[in-house]
Structure formats: C-alpha cells, structure tokens
Amino acid sequence: MADKIFRVNMSDLTTSIEDVPESWAGHGGRGLTSTIVAAEVEPTCHPLGPNNKLVIAPGLLSGTIAANSGRLSIGAKSPLTGTIKESNAGGTAAQLLARAGCKAIIIEGLPKENTWYSLALTPESITINEETELIGKGNFTVLETLADRLEDKPAILTIGQAGEMKMCSANISIKDPDGNLRSSGRGGLGAVMGSKKIKFITIDPKGGKVEIADSEKFKEANRVFAKALIDHPISQGLGQYGTNVLVNIINESGGLPTRNFTQGQFDGHEAISGETMHDVILERDGKVKHNCHAGCVIQCSQIYNDTKKEKLTAGFEYESIWAMGADCCVDNLDQIAEADRIMDDIGIDTIETSVAMGVAMEGGVLEFGDGAGVLRILQEEVSKGTGLGRIIGNGAGSVGRAYGLTRVPVVKNQAIPAYDPRAIKGIGITYATSTQGADHTMGYTITANILGVGGNVDPLTKEGQIQLSRDLQIATAAIDSTGMCLFIAFAALDNEECLPALVDLLNARFGIGLTMDDVIALGQSILKTERGFNIKAGFTAADDRLPDFFYSEPLPPHNVVFDFTDEEMATFWDF
Ligand code: SF4
C-alpha cells in the first residue's frame, strides 16, 4: 500500500486522500512538514488565519521496529515566532499513522461557524465530527473520556484550554502507550490547531505493517543501531536519572540560568537534581526508565508520584524542572511537578510558560521562589484565560512587553531554554541562528561544549562554536526527518557504527542507496528551505542575534558575556 496525504479543509468541512507528489516522497518528519509548509503556506500570512496550515507527519522510519523511531513531527507557521516551525514528540501517533499508510495530514482553512470538531483517521479515511462534550476541558479529561467513549485504543492528539484560547505557548499533546501525555511543545502549534477549532484527532490502531524493501538487512542494521544506543554511557545515565541528570552538570559548568538569567548557578540545585528526583521516585514507588513510545531502548522518561504514592506527573524533563526551578528560584521538586502536571493539562509549553513566570517575577508580579504563587497563577489565571493569564500564556516576550522589561530571554520571541549562552557559547549560536527561534534541540552543542561527546569545544571561548552549531543543526534536521529521538545523537557522535547503521536502516526500508553525503545534503536542504520561508516572511540577519543583555551583563560565576559580532553570526549560513 503506497503512503498517502490525508487533507482536511476546515473551511468547507471536506476531506480528501491524495497521492504523494514525487518531490515529497523522499521526505518524512521535519523534512516533510517544512517542505509542505514552505510549498503551501504564504510566509506573510497570519498564523491563526485561514491561510496557515497544520501539517502532521511521522518520520521516515516510524512504524517500523527501528529503535527510537516513533517521533511525530508537527509543523506550521508559528504564532509565537512568526517563523516556520516544527516540533516533535513521542507517543503512539507516529507509529499508528505510518502503519495507516499516512505520509502526512494537512489541515487547512478555518470553519465558518463557531463550532468545534474532532478528526478521526483510519487507513481508508479521515472524517470531521462535531464535538461539544470536551470543549473547555483539559487534556487529562480528554484522554479519560475518550478511553470510555472509544472501543479501540487509538492514538490521540489533543489541545487543552490554552490551545482553545489560541495562546502563543499552547502545545499539542500526544498520548503515550500508558496514557501519559507527550508534548509537541514549542512555538504555539496548539494555537494553530485551536484556530481551526479541532479539539482532538484520533488515529485508528488497525493499520497494517510498514513495508520494508529488505527486511533481513533492516533487522541487521537495527541490531547494530540499537546496540550502539544501549551501550553509550549517556544513554545509560538518561535511563537511570532522566534528562534531569543535567541539573548538577550544567550548574557545575556555571551555565544554569538562574533568577531570570542573572546567575549561572542555583543554590537549590541539589534539591531539584536528577539524583534527588531518582531517589524520590523510588521512595514513592514511581518508575524510572519509562518510554514515550514502543521501541525506545534508552527510556529517559519516568513516572513521578506524590507523597501519597499516586501519580503526579510523567515525562518530567530537565528543561521543565530547570525553568520552573532555577530560573524561578523554586527549589521544591513537588511544587515543580505539580506545575508540570497543570501545564500538561492546560496544554501549554513548560519552557515558554516557566520562563514567562521568571520574567513576571522580575516584573514584580510575584516573588522569586514563590512556587505556591506559580501554581495559583497557572490554575486561576492561565487556565481560565484572565488578563494576566493570557499575558503569561502568550509567552516570555509577551510578559516583557506588558511590564516594560528589558531582560527578556527570547530569540525571535521564543524563550531561551536551559543553558546560558554566555557560559556555553555554542548553544548561543544555535539559539540565534536556528530557523525556529531559541531552541536547544535544533543544534545541541552541549554534546561537545559540556559532555565531551563528539569531541571537546571549550564552552567559554569563541573558537569552533559556529562550526559546531552548524554541523549539529544540519545533522539534526536530517535526524528529525527519520522519526528518531534526538538522544540517538550521543551514540551517533561517538560510535562509528551508529550513523552508518542509521543510513542502512533507511536504505533497507526504501530499497535505495543513500550515502552519508546524501544525508548531510538532506539536512542542509531542509535548513535552507526553512530559512527561505523565514526570509520571505520578513526575517533578516538582524533577527539572528541574542537579546542585548547577553552582550552587556557578565554572568557569574565566570563573569562572561556573549561576544560574537553580527558579522561573525552571519557566517553561520556559509554553506
Ligand atoms: S529516549 Fe526519551 S525522548 Fe527518546 S524516545 Fe526514549 S523516552 Fe522518548
């Protein structure tokens, strides 16, 4: 069965199933969402208007037995950044979409009436259904209600109240195999889904098998690939402590943004560290080593219970814990976990919203360290859409503008994540030049800057940072097209068998003969497609820089500033 494009027009409430154009056939995941958005979305359109499109695509290897290949890419023009956007997450949707023969879902137009809908995809059809019961409800209620309402166990993509209110930080949540939520968090894609008045999408689990051109070669390549992932020490650390293993490491480096990016170390780091979290999880009968989709061999996720040993949150990530913890000076892991659960329920990006809280603290809305105040604002203001709730729900830049602040850590209006670019300069290059606003996952230089993976590049000097970020951004664009989780990068950079095995997987899946050079060329062309969209949308080299305070305020303890000139930054695009 050949893969198809499932198209939904919300303006006239029609659907169609189309052949895949030849020029899209070699793409998947991010490569496909960005190719379609660049081809079909007018770059200057309003992201919440009728001319934006929401594109959902499994990776090239999703739905197969390839380890860690179940990520789903979602793309559109971002209401937060105004740039092209791709955000990927785990959950069961990518695998079921691939098995249903769906290359991508394209959702276009806006409904004429004030009516809400859901979409239901099967291998043969995609249908639009009116929805009333779940409107105004949080994501957990959506999952519980649909578990009762639907007989099979479909994959579910859903938006919470933040998406319904079209907040620029709204995410799209995806159900994982155990009924937890994973999030396509960044860039406000939940607001785009909300603008189209789609509350949730279900994907039927009765698809067939993904066709493999050479199944013996595929199995052998997967054996080598999975072994490389399992054997890498960072994979093992992620399985034991989760991504939160990074709190103590980044604090030690002096690059843990603290108190709205005024310090590089947090006195309360031990209380919120991965090691502490690991012990608390075990004491409360939670779970370390949990996977966000079937087939993950690293298992960086976990289940975090409350003091009564009942589930409080899952997939409790370093970036969320840093943002609500060090950046807001909250050193109470239970309060941070509660905030994480509420944000998952409302359907709002934990990085953007927590950095917005830090900026609000600087603006005097609440005190630094006031975890109870954060919980109150999330429950009483953001989820109910009060004036303050909407200011915070529209992101860190929105709070900065509302309160007249200048220390607002955003690039292209997207909040800077958990690594201060003054003390870890390579990641500053990624934040500034990424086609999608500040995003560590676009070119994760923490590998060579801090972790000694793929070599060593001194985080405090300028030498080698642009090349490092460029190489990683190109590689990431290609990896994001396969459906692979980003955490394959550690083994890929250190184990010489890993990347060739990934290329072998692609070749065995499709019966083609890609080389490593082809994969690099794919990554380069995706970045150029994305940048081309942004240039047409009005972005220039002047947008590829950090906020002023990073160039003028030295960051303790190293007392360093970000010191790349705009001319040096512009050389990033010399390829
Ligand atoms: S390593 Fe973590 S993010 Fe990656 S697939 Fe596994 S659980 Fe998901």
Describe the protein's architecture and organization.
With 575 residues, the protein is of the alpha+beta class. It has 3 domains: 4-203, Aldehyde Ferredoxin Oxidoreductase,  A, domain 1 (4-Layer Sandwich), CATH 3.60.9.10; 214-239 and 421-575, Aldehyde Ferredoxin Oxidoreductase Protein, subunit A, domain 3, CATH 1.10.599; 242-419, Aldehyde Ferredoxin Oxidoreductase Protein, subunit A, domain 2 (Orthogonal Bundle), CATH 1.10.569. The chain has 23 helices and 17 strands. It has helices at 29-40, 93-99, 139-149, 161-164, 189-195, 215-231, 233-241, 246-253, 274-283, 318-324, 333-346, 350-362, 371-382, 387-393, 396-403, 425-433, 446-451, 465-482, 489-494, 498-510, 516-537, 549-552, 566-570, and strands at residues 4-9, 14-19, 53-58, 72-77, 84-89, 102-108, 117-121, 126-130, 155-158, 172-175, 181-184, 198-203, 287-290, 301-305, 311-314, 410-411, 414-415. The strands form 4 sheets. The chain has a 6-stranded mixed β-sheet with strand order 2-1-6-3-4-5. A hairpin with a 5-residue loop joins β10 and β11. The longest helix is centred in the C-terminal third of the chain and has 22 residues, at 516-537. It is globular and about 60 Å long. The mean pLDDT is 97. Bound molecules: iron/sulfur cluster. Iron/sulfur cluster binds at residues 68, 90, 291-293, 296, 298-301, 485, 487.
